[in-house]
Amino acid sequence: MARTAQELFEGHGLQENEPLLRGVSGSYLFDIQSVGSWFVGVDKGKVKVDRREHEAADCVIQCNEQDFVDIVEGRRNLLTSVMQGRVQVQGDLALAQKFHRLVGAISERRRGAM
Fold first, then answer.
1. Which domains does the chain have, with CATH numbers?
2. For site-directed labelling of 59, which of 49, 50, 93, 111 has its Cα 20 to 30 A away?
3. At what angle do helices 93-113 and 65-72 cross, to 10 degrees?
């Protein structure tokens, strides 16, 4: 279990050609308060993670580190967190929903590997 956003991005579990994102193209900027930003580009399932802020992303997700870790590890629901004001999403909400589904699938994949 990861304790930091850095650990999650280093061992994110996304494959270079992620089957779960086969039909997805777009970009995410994860802005983790007091920690930093990560840019994730997806092009029809090909994933690239970069540890720097880019000028523009299709979907920007902002939150504190603990909420981010809890969401990615499946302890907190992204959409519920948005409604509670714990997470802010700007831009393409459809991409945010796809991220939500991807997080669930990765959590299931990790549980199956244990």
1. 5-106 (3.30.1050.10)
2. 111
3. 60
Residues 6+ apart with CB under 8 A from 92: 26, 58, 59
What is the chain's mean pLDDT, rounded? 84
pLDDT beyond 60 at 113: no
Report the predicted TM-score, pTM, of the whole model to 2 decimal places. 0.84
Residue 68 neighbours by CB distance under 10 Å: 28
Separation between Cα atoms, residue 83 and residue 62, nearest integer Å? 13
Q: Which helix (H) or strand (E) holds 95?
A: helix 93-113
pLDDT digit string (tens) for 33-47?
999 999 988 898 888
